[in-house]
Amino acid sequence: MYDYAAPTVTGKTRATIFGIGEEYATEVGFFPGDRIEPLVGRLGGAIEYLGSLESVEAVDGSLYVDGPRDFRVLVSAFTGAERDRFTIAHELGHYVLHSNRGARRLMARRFGSDRVEWEANWFAAAFLMPERDFRATCDRYSNDAAIVAARYLVSVRAAEVRMSALGLV
């Protein structure tokens, strides 16, 4: 068994991390509404959908990084497609921000709400909902969170949080 480091705070601002998330999406050719699972595979990662008992018993990480182009994302059995999509993008945030794209062996834990988790959330929001496109969609649909969420295949809550972060509501 490998020794895994825990993610550590980058100290970057929310705006900077938003930029990193958007730049990474562009770099890897990911566009709003694209399926995220094939992208993870192209990046050398694997997604493991846990069964219900595994999800209950899981106490370790949601992300294991063993090296560049070598990582696993664990997804709970108790969530839906939109939540899973955000979770996978969140774990990509840990991969990019906290393991330096696999340069650092890392295990990101499933639960928590600290600065490291915020950074991964900021990355995921910008990765899935890039600001220029997101603002245009919000404008077009008068900030109707359900319609906006459907455009990006995220939960209504994720769309609402992004709207708030960008000062749209």
- Name the overall outline: globular
In the CATH hierarchy, the third-tier topology of the largest domain is known as Arc Repressor Mutant, subunit A
CATH architecture label of the largest domain: Orthogonal Bundle
Strand adjacency order, main sheet:
1-3-2-4
In the CATH hierarchy, what is the class of the largest domain? Mainly Alpha
Structural class of the secondary elements?
A: alpha+beta
User: How many β-strand runs?
Assistant: 4
Question: How would you portray this structure in words?
Answer:
This protein has 169 residues and is an alpha+beta fold. It has two domains: 14-128, Arc Repressor Mutant, subunit A (Orthogonal Bundle); 130-169. Helices cover 51% and strands 13% of the residues. The protein has eight helices and four strands, in the order H-H-E-H-E-E-H-E-H-H-H-H. The protein has helices spanning 14-27, 37-42, 52-57, 81-98, 115-128, 131-140, 145-152, 156-165; strands at 45-49, 61-67, 70-75, 106-109. A four-stranded mixed β-sheet has the order 1-3-2-4. Strand 2 and strand 3 (70-75) form a beta hairpin. Helix 1 packs across helix 5 (115-128) and helix 7 crosses helix 8. The protein is globular, with a radius of gyration of 15 Å. The mean pLDDT is 92.
Would you kindly provide a brief summary of this structure?
With 169 residues, this protein is of the alpha+beta class. The protein is 51% helix and 13% strand. α1 crosses α5.
Topology:
Layout: H1 14-27, H2 37-42, E1 45-49, H3 52-57, E2 61-67, E3 70-75, H4 81-98, E4 106-109, H5 115-128, H6 131-140, H7 145-152, H8 156-165
